[in-house]
Amino acid sequence: MSVENWSEDILVVELLDDPAFSDDVKAVMDQVEGPKDVDVVLNFAGLNHLNSSNIAKLLKLRKVLHARKRRLVLCGIDTNVWGLLLVTGLDKVFDFADNVAMGLASVQLEPE
Q1: Residue 112 above 60 pLDDT?
Q2: Which residues pair with 4 in a beta bridge?
Q3: Calpha distance 86→97 (Å, rounded)
Q4: Dihedral angle at the C-alpha atoms of 67, 36, 1, 112, nearest 10 degrees?
Q5: Which of 39, 43, 47, 96 has its CA 20 to 30 A from that of 106?
Q6: DSSP secondary structure string for all residues of 14-67
Q7: Residues 63 and 42: beta-carbon distance below 8 Å
Q8: 85 with 47: CB under 8 angstroms?
Q9: CA 18 → CA 22, 24, 45, 48, 112, distances in Å?
Q10: What is the pairing mode between strands 39-46 and 95-97?
Q11: Pairing, β 95-97 against β 72-75
C-alpha cells in the first residue's frame, strides 16, 4: 500500500486487490480515527475487483469520515468495479473522480 500525506489534511491511498485491500483500509482507518482530521482520496487503479467485505470496509470508512465532516473520494475505478458500484447503487453513496489529480482538486475545491 502506498499512503501519501499529500498535505497536512489530505491522504492519498493507492489500493490493491485482496488480501492487501483489507490491510490497506485498516491502516487508513487508523489514521482517520486519529486526533487529526483528514480527507481521503482512494486510488483504485490497482484494484480489479471488490467483494462484500471490501464494500463494508469502504462504507465504514465513509461513515467515520462523514461523521468528522471530512471527504472521501474514490478515483481510477476499473470498469468491472464501476459496474459493481452501479448495480449496488453505491455510485450514489460515494464521491468519484477520474484520477488522483481530479480527486485532489475535488477535495480542495468543494466543501462537503
Answers
A1: no
A2: 12
A3: 15
A4: 40
A5: 47
A6: EEESTTHHHHHHHHHHHHHTSSS--EEEEEEEE-----HHHHHHHHHHHHHHHH
A7: no
A8: no
A9: 7, 9, 14, 10, 30
A10: unpaired
A11: parallel
Mean pLDDT of 47-73: 93
Q: What is the DSSP letter of 92?
A: G
Which domains does the chain carry?
A: 2-109 (3.30.750.24)
Tens digit of each residue's pLDDT (9 = 90 or more) over 81-98 = 999 999 999 999 999 999
Contact 106, 39 (CB under 8 A): no
Please report the pLDDT score of residue 40 as a whole number: 95
| Pairing mode, strands 10-16 and 2-7 | antiparallel
Dmax over CA atoms of the chain, in Å, equals 36
State the helix-helix crossing angle for 52-67 and 20-32, rounded to 10 degrees: 10
